[in-house]
């Protein structure tokens, strides 16, 4: 140790030079190691440019028209513009119900090729604000249809990209994050749509029906409502998985209904604000003021949990509902109705 401490200036200079050489050489050594792909390392933002290029080829502007004797769309006109996207090789596309509701004719225009294609309306579900169109698959390009994000894969803070045609501007994209999941929004029928995804990506008129995609290009929702700057909502992939196959197969979708209106939600459960007279809950003996603690094996202690638990069931299915009444716990069996 003493020899190192009293080393000559020449030796010390040599040691410093070796250390400096090692430091200078470190970046060169690392340059041969491939960098991780953008967006694949946890905590990194994806390349939104690459993401947009991946999905743009199967996202289209949707032009819907009503007849001269038909009532106008919600925009006060007899034509409406939204967006849609291809979901399978047979030419099926998903959009919002409010974009094509009661339309006489529909055309779609793909941004990458500017090709305009006639589309037929396969099915519309106003309750969940979803609709399915179909175009001749021979008119589609080589781009792959969009896949749905797996259930449970969407988390608050995940980066997302919304693609559509805001204010009739073809092929526009807006980036943001997932602000919340499990939200409830209202459909065209006034019923709630459970499991909606909230995002701060800009959703404006014309974005309706376009995809909200994650960093892998998978659909996490169908852009549906823009409430205010930084507060927008999409019908979730969870709802799509349940409704879209029914629309493709039958042109309509059956939704289960419990027949209650939910008030406050606490850590004990969801309080029933009102029971629909003659509905499934009423026939099972549920009352105003009961607190629903669990539906089947799903607790109902967060906002939207009741609607989500019911939506996951089929009409006519019998389900145990655990309630708290007058400080006592009881379980009743409810046969769900059809919306």
From TrEMBL:
PANTHER family given in the database record: PEPTIDASE S12 (PTHR43343), PROTEASE DO-LIKE 8, CHLOROPLASTIC (PTHR43343:SF3)
SUPFAM superfamilies per record: PDZ domain-like, Trypsin-like serine proteases
Gene3D superfamilies on file: 2.30.42.10, 2.40.10.120
Protein name: Peptidase S1
GO terms of biological process kind: proteolysis
Swiss-Prot/TrEMBL keywords: Hydrolase, Protease
GO MF annotation terms: serine-type endopeptidase activity
Organism expressing this protein natively: Paraconexibacter algicola
PROSITE patterns (UniProt xref): PDZ (PS50106)
Classification via InterPro entries: Chloro_Bact_Ser_Proteases (IPR051201), PDZ (IPR001478), PDZ_sf (IPR036034), Peptidase_S1_PA (IPR009003), Peptidase_S1C (IPR001940)
Pfam families attached to this UniProt entry: PDZ_2, Trypsin_2
PDZ domain span: 247-327
Domain of life of the organism encoding this protein: Bacteria
Lineage per the UniProt record: Bacteria, Bacillati, Actinomycetota, Thermoleophilia, Solirubrobacterales
């Amino acid at each position: 140790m003493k020899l190192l401490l009293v080393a000559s200036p020449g030796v010390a200079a040599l040691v410093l030079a070796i250390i400096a050489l090692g430091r200078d050489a470190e970046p060169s050594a690392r340059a041969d190691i491939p960098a991780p792909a953008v967006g694949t390392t946890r905590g990194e933002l994806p390349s939104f440019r690459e993401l947009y290029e991946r999905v743009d080829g199967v996202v289209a502007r949707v032009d819907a028209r009503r007849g001269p004797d038909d009532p106008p769309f919600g925009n006060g006109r007899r034509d409406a513009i939204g967006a849609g996207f291809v979901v399978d090789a047979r030419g099926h596309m998903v959009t919002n119900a409010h974009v094509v509701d009661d339309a006489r004719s529909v055309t779609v225009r793909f941004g990458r090729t500017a090709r305009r294609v006639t589309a037929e309306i396969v099915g519309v579900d106003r309750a969940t604000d979803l609709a399915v169109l179909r175009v001749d698959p021979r008119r589609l390009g080589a781009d792959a249809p969009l896949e749905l994000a797996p259930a449970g894969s969407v988390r608050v803070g995940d980066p997302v990209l919304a693609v559509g045609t805001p204010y009739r501007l073809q092929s526009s994209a807006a980036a943001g994050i997932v602000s919340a999941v499990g939200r409830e929004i209202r459909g065209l029928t006034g019923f709630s749509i459970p499991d909606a995804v909230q995002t701060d990506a800009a959703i404006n008129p014309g974005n309706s029906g376009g995809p909200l995609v994650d960093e892998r290009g998978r659909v996490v929702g169908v852009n549906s409502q823009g409430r205010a700057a930084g507060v927008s909502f999409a019908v979730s992939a969870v709802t799509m998985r349940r409704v879209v196959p029914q629309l493709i197969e039958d042109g309509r979708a059956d939704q289960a209904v419990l027949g209650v209106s939910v008030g406050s939600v606490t850590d004990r459960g969801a309080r029933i604000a009102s029971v629909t007279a003659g509905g499934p809950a009423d026939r099972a003996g549920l009352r105003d003021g009961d607190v629903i603690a669990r539906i089947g094996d799903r607790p109902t202690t967060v906002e939207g949990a009741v609607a989500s638990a019911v939506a996951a069931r089929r009409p006519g299915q019998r389900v145990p509902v655990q309630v708290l009444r007058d400080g006592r716990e009881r379980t009743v069996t409810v046969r769900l109705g059809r919306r």
